[in-house]
Structures are given as structure tokens and as C-alpha cells.
Write a structure and sequence with these properties.
This protein has 362 residues and is an alpha/beta fold. It is 46% helix and 16% strand. It has helices at residues 2-7, 13-19, 21-31, 43-51, 61-78, 87-90, 113-124, 139-143, 162-181, 190-205, 208-218, 232-248, 284-296, 326-344; strands at residues 33-34, 38-39, 54-59, 82-86, 101-107, 129-133, 146-149, 224-229, 251-256, 273-278, 300-306, 316-318. It starts with a helix and ends in an 18-residue tail after the last helix. It binds 6-O-phosphono-alpha-D-glucopyranose (G6P).
Length: 362
């Protein structure tokens, strides 16, 4: 069977694709490197980013979660306002558009019907579109004005892993390129920072036993699990929850740490697992305060922190990287947590029930 050959020695595509992430990041660095200018990027895309007064990111599922991080990158580095929209909701809740919108479609497959229908709609309105995809010949790529390629190689597992990290890496490069083109002085070489990220992910991929132990300790028998974070960690928590529910069928939700007290905390019982992300210096104190609140109600709290911000008893510590690029690193233990949780429950890791890799119906 052809799929067995492609999997090589791996039991599942998902695990193989998680392990491929360092190489994918290195490939992106190589593809987007320019000897003299630093970043190599299509000059029409650079111009489109300079011409727009507001970027509208459209995506679904994991690609939407990458878009949430992309907004932070583009706004923080390039100082261009960004809105992120779930593709299936865009036409019902269409925002008031700015004068010179630029639409960015993020899609691993380039075939998601919900995203395509927004593309058709905005092209009819005459607006420019850029697609960020893993499949350059795909529908969303062909029908948009510009394409940025993820260079992640085929992603087979339904649960997206390496495409997510590739999307964030490419969005970071786009954000820095725009900043440079606008003459914004950044103390930040994205390609160098991404090389550090690649090594950090490699180190995490060598710690699978420790992650599996986290699953045994926190998730073995639970029916639900909460992820909390603040700032950029909140978005990564949403992605961690999506991974977990997709393949292990554990009911999982990602929440903003500060929102807990406005409702969700009512669900905390003795033993409820709460996975908290702590990779951001400015919110380290407050996310840990949220952890204390849930622990006081009996939660089984699992803190995943970053080197330099870690404290005694944190369940897992990821290597330090640039604070805007932490999602690339902190998502890896969450991907592996989902993987081992599914494995321990005898779930079909690569082909979860009711889900499709690429959803070509609206
Ligand atoms: C499906 C897949 C998800 C994916 C989403 C968007 O629901 O199961 O893993 O994130 O579609 O797909 P796209 O190819 O547009 O990124």
C-alpha cells in the first residue's frame, strides 16, 4: 500500500509531519532568503502590502488559527491593521471594508469551499487577493492575484500540524518584508529567528516521552479539557484544543485566561485538566494567577512555559525563541499531546471520524 511506503518507519502520518516541522522551517528560510536584500519576495506582493490600508485574512480551521497569529505579526511588525475572519461567516457578517482592502486567504489545501466562495465574492467587488497555500496549483492559488507557497510538502494527516507552523513562518516573513519596505527599523532578522525556532522544535521532537507522560498524568480518563492563555498564547491554546478534539474526541476548548471567571470556571471540577500556556513575559504573572484560580476549584493544572519564564512544577518547558514566534514552538507539545491522547484511546489518528482533510462543500 502506497501510504505505508510514504509513512516510512512512522506509525502515523501525523507523527511524521510533526517531526518534519524543523526541516519545513529550514526550507522556508532557504526559499525566502535573498543574498543581498535579506528576504526574497515577489515585488507585486510587496507592493500590494504597501498599497493596502487594511488586510482581511480569510481562513478555516487550523489555518484560521494561524491567521490569528498572523494578525499579531503584521500589526506589530508592519503596522498594517488586520482583521481575521472565519471564511464560512464572512458573507453573513461582512465587515465594513476599508478603502483599499487586501484579502489574504490562508489555506493548506487551497481547496476549501468556504474560503473560495469569499474569494469569488471579493474578486467580483474588484479587490486584490493573496493566497498563502501549500498547493500552488490549487483553486485558491489560481484564482487569487498572488500566491505565497508554504513549501511544507504534502500533508496527509487530517489534523494539520506542519502547515500551521509553515503558515506562521511565512506570515512572519511577509510581515517583516512589509515593515522593511515601509522603512520601519526592526531589530529582528526573521530568517535568523526562524533558524532558532527550527532548532527549538527539533529539541521538542526529541522529548516525546515527556509529552506522553503529560498525557498519562492529565488526560488519560478525562472527558474534557480546557486550554488557557493570554495574548498570543490564547490563539495557540485554541489550536491546541482543536487538535485535541479532532483526533482524541476529548471535548476541548481554548479560552482567554481573563475570561474564565466570566463563565467557564463554573465547569471546573475535581480533576478537570487545564492546560495553561505561559510563553509571554508581559502576562506571565496574570496567567499564573488564573491557574491558581482553577487549582483552587480542584483543576489538574498543566503549565507549559518557556525557558526564562518557567517556574518550579511547570509540566513542560519549551526553549526560548523571539516572543512573536513562540506559537511555532509552543504548539508542538500541544500537537504531541493530541497525538498521544488519541493513541492512548485507540482512535484513528490520521483519519478521525466525521472529518475530511479538505472540505470542498460549503
Ligand atoms: C478541514 C481540515 C482542517 C483544516 C481546514 C482548513 O477542516 O480538517 O485540518 O484546518 O479544513 O483547510 P485548509 O486546507 O483551507 O487550510
Amino acid at each position: 500500500d502506497a501510504s505505508d511506503i510514504e509513512k516510512g518507519t512512522y506509525p502515523h502520518f501525523m507523527l511524521k509531519e510533526i517531526d518534519e516541522q524543523p526541516a519545513v522551517i529550514r526550507k522556508i528560510v532557504q526559499e525566502y532568503r535573498h543574498e543581498k536584500e535579506g528576504i526574497k519576495l515577489d515585488k507585486d506582493i510587496r507592493q500590494a502590502m504597501l498599497d493596502t490600508d487594511r488586510v482581511y485574512i480569510i481562513a478555516a480551521g487550523t489555518s484560521y488559527h494561524a491567521g490569528l497569529v498572523g494578525k499579531q505579526l503584521i500589526e506589530n511588525l508592519a503596522k498594517v491593521p488586520v482583521e481575521v475572519h472565519v471564511a464560512s461567516e464572512f458573507s453573513y457578517n461582512m465587515p465594513l471594508l476599508s478603502e483599499k482592502p487586501l484579502f489574504i486567504f490562508i489555506s493548506q489545501s487551497g481547496e476549501t469551499a468556504d474560503s473560495r466562495s469569499v474569494l469569488v465574492q471579493i474578486k467580483e467587488m474588484g479587490y486584490p487577493a493573496l493566497t498563502i497555500t501549500n498547493v500552488p496549483g490549487s483553486t485558491l492559488s489560481r484564482e487569487a492575484d498572488y500566491t505565497l507557497h508554504l513549501h511544507a510538502g504534502p500533508e496527509i494527516a487530517v489534523a494539520s500540524t506542519k502547515a500551521y507552523t509553515a503558515q506562521i513562518a511565512v506570515l512572519a516573513i511577509l510581515a517583516v518584508d512589509t515593515a522593511k519596505a515601509k522603512g520601519i527599523d526592526l531589530d529582528f532578522d526573521p530568517l535568523q529567528e526562524l533558524a532558532i525556532v527550527s532548532s527549538a522544535i527539533e529539541a521538542l521532537c526529541d522529548q516525546k516521552d515527556e509529552i506522553e507522560a503529560v498525557v498519562s498524568k492529565y488526560l488519560e480518563t478525562t472527558r474534557n479539557c480546557f486550554f488557557i492563555g493570554r495574548g498570543i498564547d490564547y490563539f495557540v491554546g485554541q489550536e491546541g484544543a482543536l487538535k485535541l478534539k479532532e483526533i482524541s474526541y476529548i471535548q476541548a476548548e481554548g479560552f482567554a485566561g481573563g475570561e474564565l471567571k466570566h463563565g467557564t470556571i463554573a465547569l471546573i471540577e475535581e480533576g478537570t485538566p487545564v492546560i495553561a500556556l505561559a510563553t509571554q513575559k508581559n502576562v506571565n504573572y496574570s496567567i499564573r494567577a488564573n491557574v491558581q484560580e482553577v487549582v483552587a476549584r480542584g483543576a489538574n493544572a498543566c503549565i507549559i512555559s518557556m525557558e526564562g519564564l518557567n517556574e518550579e512544577n511547570d509540566a513542560f518547558v519549551v526553549p526560548a525563541v523571539h516572543e512573536l514566534l513562540t506559537p511555532l514552538v509552543s504548539v508542538v507539545p500541544l500537537q504531541l499531546i493530541a497525538y498521544y491522547a488519541a493513541l492512548h484511546r485507540d482512535c484513528d489518528v490520521d483519519k478521525p471520524r466525521n472529518l475530511a482533510k479538505s472540505v470542498t462543500v460549503e
